[in-house]
Amino acid sequence: MAEELEMIVDDAQSHMNKAISHLEVELTKIRAGKANPSMLDGLNVDYYGSPTPINQVANVTVLDARTISIQPWEKNMLAPIERSIMQANIGITPQNDGVLIRLFMPPLTEERRRELVKKAAGEGEHSKVAIRNIRRDAIEGVKKLQKNGLSEDVAKDGEKRIQEITDRFIVLIDKHLAAKEKEIMAV
Q: Residue 180 to residues 5, 35, 123, 129, 164: CA-CA distances in angstroms?
């Protein structure tokens, strides 16, 4: 019984770690006015008839805080890359000079910064809901074990451990959100 309890706790912690990883990925997609190559993750280019990630057909680098450079390995890929960036509607117009494509990040307005902070807070709330759902499922698992013969004291200790892990992850989400808000609001 005790090892089943440990499995429930470990499983809950593992799922909560995945929820945090997902939050980190989602927060990197929220543009804070700084150039970041991960903004182009998930963007596919038509490479001879098959959709291919942009980083597999070109070299994507950050030139400075507000500029991303995309240098295709084949010159004939300039137009398809430019087209896919326009279709992705990421709010940036590509500048094609015949050799490489530059993306200039426009400075963010105060209003846009507030919208991005709200979007980040929404992602944080989704993660908190996921963490709480994982906690609920883990505690239900502990209660099932208790019905099958686990002592009440051990079950209460297991629930307490699950709650402590949950509290730790909620604090971690709040830290991620505070850091992202600071990054977005920095002028």
A: 36, 15, 11, 19, 25
Distance CA(136)–CA(24), nearest Å, equals: 23
Query: How far apart, in whole angstroms, are the C-alpha atoms of residue 133 and residue 150?
Result: 23
Q: State residue 175 phi and psi, 5-degree precision.
A: -65, -45
Domains of the chain: 2-30+109-185 (1.10.132.20), 37-104 (3.30.1360.40)
pLDDT of residue 32: 66
Q: pTM here?
A: 0.71
What is each CA distance from 44 to 49, 80, 86, 131, in whole angstroms?
Answer: 11, 10, 12, 32
Six-digit token pair at 119?
A: 């979007």
**Residue 91 CB neighbour total at 10 angstroms:** 10
Which residues touch 119 (CB under 8 Å, ≥6 apart)? 30
Record the tokens describing residue 154, joined without a space: 């051990």
For the chain (187 residues), the mean pLDDT of every run of 10, in chain order, is 87 94 85 74 86 89 87 89 83 85 84 87 94 95 90 91 95 94 81
**CA distance from start to end of the chain:** 55
